[in-house]
């Protein structure tokens, strides 16, 4: 968490907290190994952004019960983060301020919803706020964080990846490290290495 002290926040910065939901935490329907370890790291960043009056967006999977990513529909995952279920709730230990914007994704049956910018109003909102640089952390490194970072770069944002504040599903060993390498190669700056 020392990295939070070394980075100077400025107007045009925003924090994106990706999918820190109960179903992705230990004991959840699609638990990310050590997923709960991101919470204190992200809480430190949330506190800094809130104190500076800078935008914070907390994104979440918000899937219908027959979502295309679920095994029963031919997808790769067990059911998770179904709309209005306990598993879709944010971690109770995540200190989101009342001013945080909640962004729901994967809300349609046919929308995989890996990127926080795909099919959501997040980019339009950030444009209105003059956001130029985004700090991204959350779950999971090799899926929703990866796709969010790549889309943010494609949309012209500078990206700072909070490496201490991400964890990977690791369907295949090394997926997390490969995802971080891909994000860095695309132009993201990894903080916390």
Layout of SSEs?
Elements: H1 3-6, E1 13-18, H2 38-52, E2 56-61, E3 101-105, H3 122-129, E4 133-139, H4 141-154, E5 158-167, H5 175-186, E6 189-191
Parallel strand pairs: 1-2, 1-4, 2-3, 4-5, 5-6
Folded structure, characterized:
The protein is of the alpha/beta class. It has a single domain, classed as Rossmann fold, CATH 3.40.50.850. It contains 5 helices and 6 strands, in the order H-E-H-E-E-H-E-H-E-H-E. It has a 6-stranded parallel beta sheet with strand order 3-2-1-4-5-6, sandwiched between helices. Helix 4 (141-154) packs parallel to helix 5 (175-186). It is globular. The protein starts with a helix and ends with a strand. The model is unreliable at 1-5 (pLDDT under 50).
Question: In a few lines, what is going on in this structure?
Answer:
The chain is α/β, with parallel strands linked by helices.
The overall pLDDT, averaged over residues, is 94
Please tell me the CATH architecture by its name: 3-Layer(aba) Sandwich
CATH class reads Alpha Beta
Write out the strand line-up for the largest beta sheet, numbering strands in chain order: 3-2-1-4-5-6
Secondary-structure-based class equals alpha/beta
Gap from first CA to last CA: 11 Å
What distinguishing features does this structure have?
six-stranded parallel β-sheet; globular; 5 helices; alpha/beta; Rossmann fold; about 25% helix; about 190 residues; single chain
């Amino acid at each position: 968490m020392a990295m939070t002290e070394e980075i100077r926040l400025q107007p045009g910065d925003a924090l994106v907290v990706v999918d820190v939901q109960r179903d992705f935490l230990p004991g959840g329907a699609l638990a990310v190994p050590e997923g709960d370890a991101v919470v204190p790291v992200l809480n430190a960043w949330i506190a800094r952004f809130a104190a500076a009056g800078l935008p914070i967006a907390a994104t979440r999977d918000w899937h219908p019960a027959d979502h295309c990513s679920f095994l029963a529909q031919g997808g790769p995952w067990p059911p998770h983060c179904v709309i209005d279920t306990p598993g879709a709730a944010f971690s109770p230990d995540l200190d989101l301020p009342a001013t945080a914007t909640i962004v729901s994704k994967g809300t349609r049956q046919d929308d995989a919803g890996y990127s926080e910018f795909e099919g959501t109003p997040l980019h339009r909102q950030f444009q209105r706020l003059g956001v130029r640089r985004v700090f991204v952390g959350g779950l999971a490194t090799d899926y929703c964080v990866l796709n969010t970072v790549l889309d943010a770069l494609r949309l012209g944002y500078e990206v700072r990846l909070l490496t201490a504040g991400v964890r990977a599903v690791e369907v295949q060993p090394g997926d997390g490290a490969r995802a971080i390498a891909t994000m860095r190669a695309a132009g993201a700056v990894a903080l916390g290495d």
